[in-house]
Amino acid sequence: MALGILLIFMISLFVVTLICVALLWIAKRERFNQVMVWLCFLISWYIVYLSVSSLPTNYIISKMIAWLIGGVSLIGMGCFFKKKLLLAKIFITLSISLGIIQLFFF
To answer: Where, by residue number, does the polypeptide cross the bilayer (predicted)?
Structure first.
């Protein structure tokens, strides 16, 4: 029963991130674009939190890799504040993609 709930949670997380990243790249209006950057940033850190908290305490290297993936999204937000929107989208998308890959497969 618990594994079925976990499967539903992981599939819904994947679908939500896929939709958010797609909306991040196809957004045309400036305000909606800003909202999507912030939403994807928060989703990225939620994925980092799930990755770090789901690992045992002695998996230090894997936890550090998860924190570094979160750092990529911080770099993206730094680019966002410096008005480099394309670079911010690239970094945040990279962070979400790497975070999902790490969460699902490693």
So the answer is: 6-26, 35-52, 64-81, 86-105
Cβ–Cβ under 8 Å, residues 48 and 13: no
pTM exceeds 0.85, yes or no? yes
46: Cα separation from own chain's centroid: 7
Q: How far apart are CA 91 and CA 97, in angstroms?
A: 10
Q: Cα separation of 51 and 31, whole Å?
A: 30
Domain boundaries, the chain: 2-105
What are the distances in angstroms from CA 101 to CA 29, 33, 69, 106? 30, 25, 11, 7
Instruction: Kindly report, residue by residue over 78-98, the tens digit of the pLDDT.
Output: 999 999 999 999 999 999 999
